[in-house]
Predict the 3D structure of the following.
Amino acid sequence: MTPIRRALAALAAPALAATALVPLGATAAHADAGPPPGSMASLGDSITRGFNACGWYVDCASRSFSTGDNSSVNSHYLRIRAVNPAIAGNNHNDAKTGAKSADMSGQAGTAVSQGVGYVTMLIGANDACTGSESSMTPVSTYRANIDAALGRIKAGLPNARVAIVSIPDIHRLWSVGKDSGSARTAWALFGICQSMLANPTSTAQADVDRRARVRQRVVDYNTQLAQACAAYGPNCDFDDNAVFGYPFTLSQLSTWDYFHPNAAGQQALATVTYTAGFHW
């Protein structure tokens, strides 16, 4: 694989979700959001960076569902700013394209240093969307990484609200894109998410079973997110699988990679996540 293919294959996070919710055990109770925050930070990967939402293989942080300031997306930040103008300019996108759960503690430390009152976190697609099934992050490791990040936030920002977003259902990415020649070409050319997207038109049992196992890994990660958020306490809110259960369509994906959400996809994420979490 060429260096550019390796780099592109490492880019984060598919932007698709399942057609049905999956029960994931205990979740945090929806608490009173309190007054609207005066500052916020977003943690995560390329979805949160708005990658490919405005340009060819570049971050488009202005179109992030969380901290973006582009009116077409109507992010969490803009929704909060409408009721609390004091947050203006205090929107920090600490996410990194290509990030995995292991990177969350460092990003959390950045958010702590910024002294924010609200944090969103969407992470885990890159832990499952790897070059092969065998290289996915173990569930126990994923949970330890999430706990480390949440522990750092709780210690440094004890009064901040934390919104945990479920990982999109990457099996739906395969489902809505497998019949598109353009999508299949992009997936193969850039080596995208081969744990799920290798041999996309194959109906061989080995490929069917592999896709099911990769999807189950995402379900298992979401279970850990729900439980970790519940353990955090009332200042943490899990989206109860709202993103995992949202039926994204091919039209909400960038036509450059058929992988990341375009502006319409980011807008959908903003609405789904804000409605499911703390909202002011």
Remarks:
- The CA atoms of residues 73 and 267 lie 4 Å apart.
- Confidence is low (pLDDT under 50) at residues 1-29.
